[in-house]
Write a structure and sequence with these properties.
mainly alpha; flat
């Protein structure tokens, strides 16, 4: 009987508890819980209490935010009572864990957005057979045509590389744009300078300068980072191009691909054998034909084999590099440059206004000297005529270079609040550019005075050309400030290439000889010893000097031509051929001993 009473009591208690539970979502039955059961008096997330009921005291509704896990309090720090080293180190490691993971994630994000990843080229298309053949031809042409000297052979050796680049670009689906044509023609013109001029220094400068338009033509970049960094892309493609070519060779190792290159290889071998056999027979049969054949083909000895092999590798690698660049160039235009923090007008303009006032004061002094005469200035400064002109030129040249740096920094931190700030920047920097142009003119005038007194040399002509190009850059900056500067980077690069091209085509050694010969006819002052170091480009002008000055001036040209005697046509420049004709018509009659005895060879200064 007691058991029945206990059972009835438990049923009554369960019914009261069930009446206090809310209905569960998805059921019409009060007290139906989720699997696993729920706490009494609490609603499951996403449900509402049954109308007419209230949550059990001490519980929260289902839509209330549940508090997160309570962070463990830090243990006692070192040096305090109750410090436990093991507990402390475990707590420190737990605290560092999230920060370390966050730092790793940030480092990965930075690596993903790094410049190297942004400018990385796309996957190139497989190399074509024509490109492989053009690369091999470029290597052979370099080994054969450039082993005896640099002349027309340089341009001929570059032609197969241009074919390889064109075929690779077409295979990649790239189209020819107007700027690509401009840069390509500029590169070809610069490579043609060694074919026209004998002097090594303008020819070397032209060859080095040809790298920039070639890089711009292949990369197609237009912004400052690309213009400055695109030549470095050849280093990357020279490395990746080897693997690219090797994959192409491996893919043609058998199967259908062999039917394409094997007949060409067989025909080439047969043609070479026929040319060698019948060429040797005809050369033995006729002396005139043997002489013609000797002038057309290089004379390669066994001792030159390592040198020729090195030239072959260099030529093939250069051709492969330009072909790989044309197939998938580095994307330099993705390099982003952030402008500096804009300054206030006063903070930005005060230094520039002071600099403008300094330039204006210097120009005022120059005008006073121009109208007052140099004699008074020389008396006050205790300088000679040459010292005044020479010293001032170098200072003004460096001033022009520094002004370009000042303008670049000023544009970085210029105020950019609105149209008023833009006009203000244009006025301040435009004034500085105008004053700098006057400084450029003053520097060129000083060098002109110095040349009138002491003649023209290579160094003097070079630095004047550099000063004139800097003046051209100042003009381009002014035009960019007035009409926008999207074209400025390519215009500066194009002006540099055009200046180098004009410098080589005008024949610096010829200009030096012409200027000094004209000076000799007017005041009979001449440095004959200096002419010994000029190239064959100076021969036409030096040929107009009277004897013995003419022979003493042409001794160096005669000796240089004797060393290159027998060079094939592709290693002989147009200037060398012209100088040989001049010396054959009027040979040199004096010796170096005669020139010393006559006092024509004396001490001199390079500058």
């Amino acid at each position: 009987m007691s058991e029945n009473a206990d059972k009835a009591k438990r049923d009554a208690t369960g019914g009261e508890a069930a009446a206090g539970r809310p209905a569960e979502s998805g059921t019409g039955m009060p007290g139906a819980g989720a699997p696993g059961g729920g706490a009494p008096g609490a609603t499951t997330r996403g449900t509402a209490p049954v109308q007419g009921t209230a949550p059990v005291e001490g519980t929260a509704p289902a839509d209330a935010a549940s508090p997160g896990p309570v962070a463990a309090p830090p243990p006692a720090p070192p040096g305090s009572p109750g410090f436990d080293s093991v507990t402390w180190h475990i707590w420190v490691a737990q605290q560092k864990g999230p920060r370390w993971q966050q730092a790793q994630a940030e480092a990965a994000a930075r690596a993903q957005a790094s410049m190297a990843r942004r400018v990385r080229s796309a996957q190139p298309a497989p190399i074509r057979t024509v490109t492989l053949v053009a690369v091999l031809v470029a290597g052979l042409a370099t080994a054969v045509l450039l082993g005896d000297g640099v002349g027309p052979g340089l341009l001929l050796a570059a032609l197969p590389a241009m074919v390889a680049a064109y075929v690779s670009a077409r295979a990649a689906g790239r189209t020819i744009r107007p700027w690509t044509v401009v840069w390509s023609l500029g590169c070809v013109a610069l490579l043609a300078v060694p074919a026209l001029r004998d002097s090594a220094w303008p020819s070397t400068l032209a060859v080095l300068a040809a790298v920039s338009p070639a890089a711009l033509a292949l990369h197609g970049t237009r912004r400052w980072p690309g213009v400055l960094l695109s030549p470095l892309g050849f280093v990357d493609t020279a490395i990746t191009g080897v693997g690219w070519a090797w994959e192409g060779v491996r893919s043609r190792g058998g199967g259908v691909a062999r039917t394409r290159w094997l007949p060409i290889a067989k025909a080439t071998v047969v043609a070479v054998v026929l040319l060698f056999v019948f060429g040797a027979l005809f050369a033995s049969a006729d002396a005139a034909f043997a002489d013609l054949l000797g002038g057309l083909t290089p004379d390669i000895s066994v001792g030159e084999s390592p040198f020729r092999v090195a030239l072959f590798l260099v030529g093939a690698l250069c051709a492969l590099s330009v072909a790989r660049t044309a197939a998938a160039p580095l994307r330099w235009d993705r390099v982003s440059t952030t402008p500096g923090k804009p300054r206030s007008r006063v903070e930005w303009a005060l230094p520039l206004v002071v600099l403008n006032l300094l330039f204006a004061g210097f120009i005022a002094v120059q005008l006073a000297v121009l109208f007052g005469g140099y004699d008074k200035v020389l008396e006050r400064t205790d300088l000679t005529y040459a010292e005044y002109a020479r010293q001032g030129f170098w200072q003004l040249l460096w001033a022009t270079v520094f002004v370009l740096g000042v303008i670049a920094l000023a544009l970085r931190w210029a105020p950019r609040g609105g149209p008023g700030d833009r006009r203000f920047v244009r006025v301040v920097l435009g004034t500085l550019c105008l004053l700098t142009l006057v400084v450029v003119a003053s520097a060129v005038r000083r060098m002109d005075l110095y040349v009138d007194a002491y003649g023209l040399t290579r160094l003097r002509l070079s630095v004047v050309t550099l000063e004139l190009w800097l003046g051209l850059v100042i003009v381009l900056l002014m035009a960019a400030g007035a009409f926008g500067g999207r074209w400025l980077a390519r215009a500066v690069a194009g002006s540099a290439a055009a200046t180098v091209l004009a410098f080589g085509l005008m024949s610096p050694d010829g200009i030096i000889a012409e200027t000094n010969v004209a000076r000799y006819t007017s005041d009979e002052k001449i440095d004959v010893e200096y002419f010994r170091h000029l190239s064959a480009d100076a021969a036409p002008a030096l040929d107009r000097l009277p004897e013995p000055q003419r022979s003493c001036a042409l001794i160096g040209v005669r000796d240089d031509l004797a060393e290159s005697e027998g060079a094939p046509w592709f290693a002989t420049s147009l200037a060398q051929s012209r100088a040989r004709r001049i010396l054959d018509a009027r040979p040199v009659t004096a010796t170096a001993h005669d020139c010393v005895r006559l006092g024509l060879y004396g001490g001199r200064s390079e500058y």
